[in-house]
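Tip: read the tokens left to right.
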């Protein structure tokens, strides 16, 4: 399957609708004092700023496994959003998240460049010297057209099981696969939804709702590829732009190979044209 990407190159109309990059670091207690400086440095690209407070539920258990304490803690989220609400940056006490609904036509190199343009400014302002992990997550929506079926786009393992022959109409289906990679863990989720809405999994609603979502999908298969890269033993990695760029590229290559093994050559042919 590796030859598919080489044959068709960068896809001109890929099915990706949402892309996320996360950099997680040890919790910082001076984030709030740095937000004004970060806002000034990002304002040209992200003129909309929104501060939100979320409640995190922390459950503690006694030694015998019985639930002991339920504690709710408030945490501030700082969202820096572009003028069209297509892309945004989220900063919390322990992570930086870049997310967009418009994946660059020039592919991952352009996506990576977009991230580093602002990431370096944020890291320098926060005086971050190390990070704990990175994550790349992509949401693809594959919607059958009038002249096609899901089997034209997906291999057999990801085609929803229809039982219309016995009078049953499929409403939704879900599959979850977990793979160990040399960089960390890759979670692959597949959903079929009769009414897929904007295609964003509900667990991402709180992050994605700062952006504008104009597309609506009906009967669709959603492919959610989530690659979390962290060193063994929860060790911290020195922040180095070249090293981080190489790790992102390696993580993307694995995720891309997974996607190539899910979809068909016919799908690549279709998506290779504008």
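Filled-in amino acids:
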């Amino acid at each position: 399957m590796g030859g598919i990407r080489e044959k068709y190159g960068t896809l001109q109309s890929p099915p990706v609708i949402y892309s996320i990059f996360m950099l997680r670091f040890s919790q910082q207690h001076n984030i709030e004092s740095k937000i004004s400086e970060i806002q000034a440095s990002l304002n040209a690209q992200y003129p909309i700023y929104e501060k939100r407070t979320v409640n995190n539920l922390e459950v503690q258990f006694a030694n015998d496994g019985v639930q002991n304490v339920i504690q709710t803690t408030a945490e501030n989220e700082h969202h820096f959003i572009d003028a069209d609400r297509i892309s945004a940056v989220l900063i919390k006490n322990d992570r930086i998240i870049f997310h967009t609904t418009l994946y660059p036509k020039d592919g991952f190199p352009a996506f990576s460049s977009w991230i580093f343009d602002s990431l370096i400014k944020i890291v320098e302002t926060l005086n971050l010297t190390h990070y704990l992990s990175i994550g790349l997550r992509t949401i693809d929506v594959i919607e059958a057209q009038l002249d096609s079926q899901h089997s034209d786009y997906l291999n057999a393992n990801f085609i929803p099981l229809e039982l219309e022959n016995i009078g049953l109409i499929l409403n939704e289906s879900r599959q979850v696969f977990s793979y160990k990679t040399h960089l960390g863990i890759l979670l692959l989720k597949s959903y079929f939804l009769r009414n897929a809405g904007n295609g964003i999994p509900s667990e991402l609603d709180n992050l994605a709702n700062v952006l504008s979502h104009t597309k609506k999908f009906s009967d669709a298969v959603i492919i959610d590829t989530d690659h979390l890269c962290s060193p063994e033993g929860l060790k911290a990695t020195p922040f180095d732009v070249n090293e981080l760029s190489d790790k992102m590229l390696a993580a993307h290559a694995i995720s891309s190979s997974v996607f190539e093994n899910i979809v068909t050559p016919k799908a690549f042919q279709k998506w290779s044209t504008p």
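The helical segments are 2-8, 31-42, 108-126, 205-208, 241-260, 265-271. The chain is about 25% helix and 35% strand.
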